[in-house]
Task: structure prediction
Amino acid sequence: MTFNGNVYRTPDAGVTMFSSSTSSGFAPTAIDYSFDDTLYIAGSSALKRSYDGGLTYTSIAVDVNNFLTTCPSNPARLYGGSSAKTNLRRSDDRGTTWVTKSGNPGWPGQPGCN
Result:
């Protein structure tokens, strides 16, 4: 969860909460539907990914920093966009590589997440 620009994690279903990011400014977050320890956080300068429930993060994309969502029917697929709101981007490999979906207004349709 995010609060006041920080990301918090809980090891015990919300009984206790710990800050898992040292950088403020994070907002959009997404969780991998098939691996709940895999988190994505769109920060002010880059998209970051954690494979350990938010203990550590790695920057994986620089132009995905404004909105972010995962696809329920394909957990390896991510959608994101830049703060300029000019492009919708899609990744089919959990954020390692991205393609620009030009001319695709709005969010992708459901349930196929095209």
